[in-house]
């Protein structure tokens, strides 16, 4: 990569230009130049790259599938709204060199892998930005400019003193290691050092027993703390001598606190940790609405990129709206609107090639299909029919449905009728919602993909009325048969776990308000899908929390629209291996439950829990997008609780003037949670503005069940849910019953 490679940059089927790509010596920057002119066209930082996709995983590369083999093609995906970079290498070997190399560079910048390298990358990034004349040295004027860029409002005398202390060569400039010294002095964490010295007898190191005391008393780590302390020293202590003596220095202590083990998010819950053998209706399922749209609902662009992004985000319920297209080929778009159209064939190909999987499974998903899991057939029966007979009255489990795709749609008759063989009469086709608001729903079918984890997909039946529903399509609908909802008693008497009803957000809210407990019971044995109001033409979202409060499993959101609603979605599904399935609490899986979200006392179990959060400090917060050059933020922290109505709350700290680099709040916020099992906690950093609305800086959202107590770092995310290292908050968490 550092030697450089000639590759094709492609923008369309006709625009394919050769460019020379080269990784710079800093191992952080890639630039490319025109082969014809030799002029450097552009450059980008590894920190701007979200991921790398292999093969024909973009619309442009799919259009060139017959011309270039997939093993030579790859796509570089950037954070934010920057367009993807589609590249074609001269050979499969060259493509793999870049794909694997980029992935290693991307991984190495993450806090989760190496805090030291992140810091070094951050330092080098700032040095390059501030070194205006590119002479590899930085004078004091450039340092002052750098401080403004870094969100630091520092007294000039103090800045000069730090500069002179770091200028060991007394040259009046900072070079290489001298700038590192300056940066370390600038980023000295007094609050962490003070905590370190509380547990260190000599103030210079933590012995093994002192570290065990800290882990036990402050971090509330259960059992095996001595073994854990040894592991932390081996993993995070930078000094070989200290490691050999089984002690932790102040630098190692900070590295531990900034690591996954020091995160507010329980690292054990990052992996697949929940029981996946419960019925499908016992899980919340990550679900998207009009997945193909990446903009608004009226004139927006339809793109397979919508499916790729949703799958990468852990989405398991995808929506495919199919309509008749030219030459008998179905197309996908938002019917009766001006949204662009994409071939159904490309959508299916993208889903079939999806590499999404559970964390504990390495096998790629099979081609798209609808067969149930294998089973021992009864004599004279096809295997899938035998399995379906055994499960017709039960909801299958995510574990049973691995590698499967479920089609949600209309169906001729019942599953049992199909298994018993065709009768003399043709039964009515099942329908979806009632009322004009569901007119569009009636024209669709949904698909539920089951890769290594089940994906629930909502797809469209190509029919104009119920008489023309194709039998072959109907036969594909096994466990997600659309049925109209005609009341909870009717559903209990006549519906089956293999059926599903869809509700508009307004209809769902009315049912929650009028019959909250009945809705919870209904969702304990049957699937419910909630979709946004047709009035949300701008692709805005409703809050999914109120739907989760009654156990609705498939709460469909517009994944393309950033905001609090998608933060909640990402926060809930960031656990359990990001498989897209989260097990509902026990009192929501009981068909006879008394729980009603409007009455927290109906929940069985212990009384309210008190969550106490001390917001201590912030680290290297990003500047507000589109802010004036040199404008330094005035940050405040707001903590929001999203849960049942009695738990909904928010509190915020005071704002700190002109310090986005290392603000200190030291404020304590306290909340009472009546139903902690359903609570999500959202940390939001804003730039205070006394004359207008505060500007968003960063956020992090997680389920209360995933919070680790003690001194913890919260690694902030951008508005679109991507990491912004090394921006973080330092907090202390206490949970009491």
State the main characteristics:
single chain; 737 residues; alpha+beta; PH-domain like; Recoverin, domain 1; 10-stranded mixed sheet; 7-stranded antiparallel sheet; 21 helices; 23% strand; globular; lipid degradation; PI-PLC_fam; EF_Hand_1_Ca_BS; metal-binding
Q: Helix and strand layout, with pairings?
A:
Elements: E1 5-10, E2 16-23, E3 29-34, E4 40-45, E5 49-54, H1 59-63, E6 73-78, E7 85-88, H2 92-108, H3 115-130, E8 137-138, H4 140-149, H5 156-166, E9 174-175, H6 176-186, H7 190-199, E10 205-206, H8 208-217, H9 225-236, H10 240-244, E11 248-249, H11 250-257, E12 283-288, H12 304-312, E13 319-320, E14 322-323, E15 331-332, E16 342-343, H13 344-352, H14 383-391, E17 405-409, H15 415-420, H16 439-442, E18 446-450, E19 454-459, H17 471-476, E20 480-482, H18 488-494, E21 499-504, H19 505-522, E22 527-531, H20 545-548, E23 554-557, H21 564-573, E24 581-583, E25 609-619, E26 635-642, E27 649-652, E28 664-673, E29 680-687, E30 695-703, E31 710-717, E32 723-736
Parallel strand pairs: 12-23, 13-19, 17-19, 17-20, 20-21, 21-22, 22-23
Antiparallel strand pairs: 1-2, 1-7, 2-3, 3-4, 5-6, 6-7, 8-9, 10-11, 12-24, 14-15, 15-16, 17-18, 18-19, 25-28, 25-32, 26-27, 26-29, 29-30, 31-32
What does this structure look like?
The protein has 737 residues and is an alpha+beta fold. The chain has 5 domains: 5-108, Roll (PH-domain like); 112-187, Recoverin, domain 1 (Orthogonal Bundle); 190-262, Orthogonal Bundle (Recoverin, domain 1); 263-355 and 394-418 and 469-599, TIM Barrel, CATH 3.20.20; 606-736, C2 domain (Immunoglobulin-like). Helix content is 27%, strand content 23%. It has 21 helices and 32 strands. Helix 5 packs across helix 6 (176-186), helix 8 crosses helix 9 and helix 9 packs across helix 11. The longest helix is centred in the last third of the chain and has 18 residues, at 505-522.
């Amino acid at each position: 990569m550092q030697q450089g490679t000639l590759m094709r940059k492609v923008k369309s089927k006709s625009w394919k230009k050769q460019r020379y790509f080269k990784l710079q010596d800093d191992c952080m920057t890639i630039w490319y130049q025109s082969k014809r002119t030799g002029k450097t066209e552009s450059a980008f930082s590894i920190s701007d790259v979200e991921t790398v996709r292999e093969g024909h995983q973009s619309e442009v590369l799919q259009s060139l599938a017959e011309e270039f083999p997939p093993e030579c093609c790859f796509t570089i995906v950037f954070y934010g709204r920057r367009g993807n970079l589609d590249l074609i290498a001269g050979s499969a070997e060259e493509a793999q060199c870049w794909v694997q190399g980029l992935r290693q560079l991307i991984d190495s910048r993450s806090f989760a892998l190496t805090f030291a390298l992140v810091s070094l990358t951050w330092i080098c990034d700032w040095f390059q930005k501030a070194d205006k004349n590119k002479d590899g040295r930085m004078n004091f004027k450039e340092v002052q400019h750098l401080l403004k860029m870094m969100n630091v409002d520092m007294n000039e005398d103090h800045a000069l003193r730090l500069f002179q202390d770091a200028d060991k060569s007394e040259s009046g400039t900072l070079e290489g290691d001298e700038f590192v010294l300056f940066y370390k002095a600038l980023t000295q964490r007094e609050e962490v050092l003070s905590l370190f010295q509380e547990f260190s007898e000599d103030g210079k190191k933590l012995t093994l027993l002192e570290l065990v005391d800290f882990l036990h008393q402050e971090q509330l780590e259960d059992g095996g703390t001595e073994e854990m302390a040894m592991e932390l020293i081996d993993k995070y202590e930078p000094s070989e001598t200290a490691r050999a003596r089984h002690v932790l220095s102040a630098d190692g202590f900070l590295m531990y606190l900034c690591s996954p083990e020091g995160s507010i998010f329980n690292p054990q819950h990052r992996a697949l940790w929940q029981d996946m053998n419960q019925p499908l209706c016992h899980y919340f399922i990550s679900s998207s609405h009009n997945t193909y749209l990446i903009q608004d609902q009226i004139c927006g662009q339809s793109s397979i990129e919508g499916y790729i992004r949703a799958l990468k985000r852990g989405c398991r319920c995808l929506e495919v709206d199919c309509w008749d297209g030219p030459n008998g080929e179905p197309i996908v778009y938002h019917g009766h609107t001006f949204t662009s159209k994409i071939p159904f064939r490309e959508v299916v190909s993208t889903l079939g090639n999806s590499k999404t999987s559970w964390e504990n499974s390495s096998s790629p998903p099979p081609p798209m299909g609808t067969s149930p899991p294998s089973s021992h057939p009864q004599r004279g029966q096809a295997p899938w029919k035998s399995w379906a007979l055994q499960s017709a009255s039960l909801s299958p489990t995510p574990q049973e449905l691995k590698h499967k795709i479920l089609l949600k749609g209309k169906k001729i008759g019942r599953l049992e009728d199909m298994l018993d063989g065709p009768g003399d009469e043709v039964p009515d086709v099942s329908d979806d919602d009632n009322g004009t608001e569901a007119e569009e729903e009636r024209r669709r079918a949904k698909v539920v993909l089951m890769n290594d984890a089940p994906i629930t997909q909502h797809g469209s039946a190509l029919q104009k009325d119920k008489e023309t529903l194709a039998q072959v399509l109907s036969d594909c609908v096994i466990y997600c048969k659309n049925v109209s909802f005609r009341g909870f008693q009717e559903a209990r008497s006549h519906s089956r776990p293999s059926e599903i009803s869809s509700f508009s957000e307004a209809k769902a809210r009315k049912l929650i308000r009028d019959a909250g407990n009945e809705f919870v019971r209904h969702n304990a044995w049957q699937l419910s899908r909630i979709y946004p109001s047709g009035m949300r033409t701008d692709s805005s979202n409703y809050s999914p929390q109120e739907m989760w409060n009654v156990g609705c499993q498939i709460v469909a959101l517009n994944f393309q629209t950033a905001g609090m609603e998608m933060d909640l979605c990402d926060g809930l599904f960031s656990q359990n291996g990001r498989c897209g399935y989260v097990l509902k609490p026990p009192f929501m899986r009981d068909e006879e439950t008394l729980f009603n979200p409007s009455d927290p006392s109906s929940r069985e179990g212990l009384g309210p829990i008190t969550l106490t959060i001390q917001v201590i400090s912030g680290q290297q917060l990003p500047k507000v997008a589109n802010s004036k050059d040199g404008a330094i933020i005035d940050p405040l922290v707001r903590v929001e609780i999203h849960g049942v109505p009695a738990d909904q709350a928010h509190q915020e700290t005071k704002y700190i003037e002109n310090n986005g680099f290392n603000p200190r709040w030291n404020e304590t916020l306290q909340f009472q949670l009546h139903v902690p099992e359903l609570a999500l906690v959202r940390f939001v950093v804003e730039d205070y503005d006394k004359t207008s609305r505060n500007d968003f800086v960063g956020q992090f959202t997680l389920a209360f069940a995933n919070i680790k107590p003690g001194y913890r770092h919260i690694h902030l995310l951008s508005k679109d849910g991507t990491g912004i290292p090394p921006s973080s908050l330092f907090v202390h968490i206490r949970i009491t019953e």
